[in-house]
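Exercise: predict the fold of this chain.
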Amino acid sequence: MATNIYKSAAQVTVFSTIEKTLSFVYRIILSRAIGAEGMGIYQICLSVFAVFLTAASSGIPVTVSRMIAKQSATGSEMGKHAVVSAGVVCTLAFTVPAAIIIFFGRNLLSFLFPDESSLDIFILLLPGLILTSVYAVMRGTFWGNKQFLPYSIIELAEDSVMVILGSVLIFFASTPTEGAYFATIAVLVSYIFSFIVSVGWYLHKGGKFVNPKKYVRPLLGSAMPITAMRTSTSLLNSVVATFLPALLISACGMTNSEALAVYGAVTGMSLPVLFTPGSLIGSISVVAAPEMSENFYAGRTKKLRSDIEKTLKSSVLIAAVLIPLLFTLGDDIGVLLYDNAFSGAVITSFSFMLLPMSVSMMTTTVLNSMNCEVKTLIYFFAGALAMLACIFALTPAIGIYSYMAGLTASYLITSALNLRLLGKMCRGVRWKKYALLCACAAAAGSLFGKLLSGMTSSILPPAANLFVCGGAVAAFIAVAFFALGLLHANEIKALLLRRRKGGKSRENGKRNEKKAEELS
């Protein structure tokens, strides 16, 4: 059983990594083709759309998967069909009226967008609200039936459709607004694709739509708290996307195009690079969270403490490795990836945000596995209020950097509150000394990288400077980790030996299987 869990987790992680890499490359293509202003319009429309989508379906997949698993345990195939039908009914009951009201009352939403064309682009996504909410139910069906491979393939295919079609269409755009419009068409087509394929797969595998009456109320009761928490995050992003460009215009004297350009550079170019730890931490969480939850409820305190220490140390280590690299190479990354020097300056200036961000993300996962979802939601609101306060107070003085300062403050507050609660929930967790040493290594690596880059940037082109300084900083960090005792040669040697033995065992197993086949 454990082998199947880890195999499924690895499978989903591999596909997810490919998908995120594809999306990252697409953002580079978009930023170069439609510019920072087009990216700003595109990000605003998607942020507002994400609020409605999250409210419609964010809690449905998890709830559907849990209820399907329960029906599987009792052997009720008809019950599983009824759960899926209930999920479809619930999400359609929200999305269809919402899409109709938004379409005919579009003028009421005009204050959310910088101009009429942005509102028109958002309206284009309304059919996707209905289709992708149904696909969310299908995702829960995949998870509940443990069909992780079809789910992963459809997710990757959906992203591929968007990237391929969007990359073709945007090169026909003559203005940033037209480019955002064409990119949005690609998003809508990808939603249509995933809806058709997922529903087709469900029906192909014997799925049916039956009377869902018995399961509508339990499904809503379980899904609403999850939806409320995730909707808050999307709503916050949408609020920022709405008022921050307007605040830049009024407080900093920017034009509409300038405000959209700097907002697009930060949210569409800099933040995807700075959020790199999220993918790595997410992969760790997939494996660690269920085990920590099991140990917590079983009262295995010693094992739980060990798991928490490992996850916290891994999050700190990820940040400590990436901070010096981004601090040193941020400027070159902005120029090479996006042809935008400002985005690179933001990456460099706020690379140190990665440490509180990584700790905040990991501790939230740990606490949620220990039945502390309500408290982590409260801590999220505390961080969100700090971020909004920073934006309003600092924008007149430092412009768009107020948003990045607010994000940093938010992560500092949530990580501090999470760690405080974690110390009460599980005493004796030892990670502070390790975190301090990692911070020292990151600071030394950043200083070394900046000094080296100062000497090489004037004589090397950005691409060569990225390669030379990146390799040198990576080597410096590795040496620093060994010197501070954060990494040990014996551990790496043991890991390599285990892999080598594992490879030999697999080879011997294959030989034995072949001999058995010959004998039979």
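Check your answer against the key: DSSP finds 18 helices and no strands in the chain.
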